[in-house]
Amino acid sequence: MGIINDSFMLKSKTAKKLYKDFAKDLPIIDYHCHLSPQMIAEDYKFKSAYDLFLGGDHYKWRQMRSNGIAENMITGDGDEYEKWVGFAKTLPLLIGNPLYHWTSLELKRYFDIDTPLTEKTAKEIWDKCNELLARDDFSAQNLIKRSNVEVICTTDDPADDLRYHKQLKDEGFPTKVLPTFRPDKLVNIDKVEFMPYLEANGIDSFEKAISWIGERIEFFHENGCRLSDHALEYVPFAKGDAKAAFDKKVKGEALTQEEIDVYKTALLSECAKYYTKLNWTMQLHIGALRNNNQKMFNKLGADTGFDSINDLCIAEKLSAFMNSLEFDDILPKTILYTLNPKDNYVLGTMLGNFQKAPTAGKIQFGSGWWFNDNKDGMEEQMKALANLGVLGNFVGMLTDSRSFVSYPRHEYFRRIFCNLVGQWVDDGEYPDDKDSLKSIVEGVCYKNAKEYFGF
C-alpha cells in the first residue's frame, strides 16, 4: 500500500483535527502557475500518462537525469512508455524528495491508485491511468473542476492577446482563469531576446516602450488581471538616464552594468506606478541562476531543468528599490519570493519596513518557491515569517506548475501547515482555541488570498 492516508504529514491529533475541520475542503486559489490557457480553453485530452505526468515537467526530468536516464528517454524521441519506465525506476530512489510525495498524491487523488510506482508496477499503473485518461471526465477542464479550484492565474507575456482567457469567460467556465502580467522580455535589456521583442511589438523608442507597457497593463486589467510577476535573477537599482541607456542599446552599443540597472529600475518603477493605480499585486521572484548548461540550453531551450539557486546579496538594492517606490507613493501590494533560503530572514524583515494600512500584510513573504516547495523549505519559510512578521496574514500556497495534476500540492502545503500549527499548540506555545485556530488556518489556506487579491 502507498503512503497517502488521513494521517499523511499530520503527526498529532491536533494537527489532524485542524486539517480535517478547517483546511481539507477549502477551495483552491492558485494565484501563480504556468498552466497553458490554450490547453484549458480547448479542454485538452491527455494522450497518455507520460503526457500528463512527464510532458513539460522539468522537476522530474532533472531527477531522471540524476538517475542516469538517457536524454532521449526524457525529452527526446524515445518511446513514451519507456520514458514512463525511466521515471518509475527513478521514483523509488527519491526518498525525502517532494516528487515522491507529489506523485503519490497525484496517483491517489486523480486515479485512486495506492500502489507505489516502481519499475515492477509501471505497466499496471500506466494501463490504469491511460484507461481513465481516455474518458472525457479526465480532460484539462474536468481535472481542474474535480480539484475544487476557484481561481487560476496563468503567466502571460504583455503582447498576448488573451484570447483563451476571453474564451473561457465567455463560455462560462466555472473556474476563473485570469492572466498575470509578466514583462520580463521588455525589462531584461541585457538579454538577447530584447531587440527582437522590441521589433516584434513596434517599440522604437524609450517613450514608446513606456506608453506600450501602460497600454498593455490597461488591456490586461480589462481582462481580469490583478497580478504581475517579475523574475529577477538579481535585484536591480540605479538612478540615471534610462532613455540614454535604451537609445545606446538600440544603436547596438554595449551597456555597462550601471546602465542596464538604470533602465531596469526605470521600467520596473513605471510598472509599479500602474500596479498601484489599479490595485494590482506585484510579485518579485528573486534569485534563480538560469540556463547553467549552455550545451543543453542550445539543444532544449529554457525551463528544461538546468536552473539552480543564485547566492547574490539582495538586501540593500531591494530596500533601495522598495524605498524609492514608497517615497513616490507608488509601492503596490507586493509578494517577495526568494529562491535562496539564506535570504528568508532578509525578506522576513524587509516586509516590516513597508507595511501600510489599510491592507493587512500589504507586503508578503511568498511561499517556499521552486527548490523550496518541499517540507523543510515550506516550514522554514513559514517559521521565518512567524518569527519576524504576522503569519496569520500569509496568503499561502501556489502551484508554480505546468501540470494539470499539481493541485494536490495545495493539500501537501495545508497538511504541513496544520502540522506545524498543531505542534505549536501541543507544545503549549499557542492556546487550543477553536475560533482563533479556525481563523488562522482558513485564512492562510484560502481566505487571505481571496481578500488580498480581490477575487
CATH class division of the largest domain: Alpha Beta
Strand content: 5-15%
CATH architecture of the largest domain: Alpha-Beta Barrel
Taken in chain order, the helices and strands follow as HEHHHHHHHEHEHHHEHHEEHEHEHEHHH
CATH-defined fold name of the largest domain: TIM Barrel
Number of E strands: 9
Total individual domains: 2
The largest pleated sheet is described as: 4 strands, parallel
Number of separate helices: 20
Q: Given the helix and strand composition, which structural class is it?
A: alpha/beta
Instruction: Provide the low-confidence segments as ranges.
Output: none
Rg from Cα: 22 Å
Helix content: 40-55%
Bulk shape: globular
CATH superfamily of the largest domain: Metal-dependent hydrolases
| Integer average pLDDT | 97
Describe, in plain words, how this protein is organized in 3D.
The chain is α/β, with parallel strands linked by helices and 455 residues long. It folds into two domains: 13-44 and 140-453, TIM Barrel (Alpha-Beta Barrel); 45-138, uronate isomerase, domain 2, chain A. The chain has 20 helices and nine strands. It has helices at 13-23, 37-41, 49-53, 58-66, 80-90, 98-111, 122-133, 140-146, 163-170, 184-187, 194-200, 206-222, 242-250, 257-278, 294-300, 315-327, 344-353, 375-388, 408-426, 434-453, and strands spanning 28-30, 149-153, 176-178, 227-232, 281-286, 288-289, 308-309, 333-338, 363-365. The strands form three sheets. It has a four-stranded parallel sheet with strand order 4-5-8-9, with helices on one face. It has a three-stranded parallel sheet with strand order 1-2-3. The chain has a two-stranded antiparallel ribbon with strand order 6-7. α9 links the parallel β2 and β3 (176-178). The relative contact order is 0.14. The model has no long low-confidence stretch (mean pLDDT 97).
